[in-house]
Amino acid sequence: MFGKKVFGIERSTFVIDEEGTIIKEFRKVKAANHADTVVEFIKSL
What is residue 9's predicted lDDT score, i.e. its pLDDT? Predict the structure, then answer.
């Protein structure tokens, strides 16, 4: 925009286990239907 560098918004989701370890990360996600994707991943554990 007008010669300026703009990053915008980058959405990320992290699934963390009981010990606090990240077991899955979803980067650069779109909001639409993303919750369904995360729920399906958690059910598959």
Answer: 83
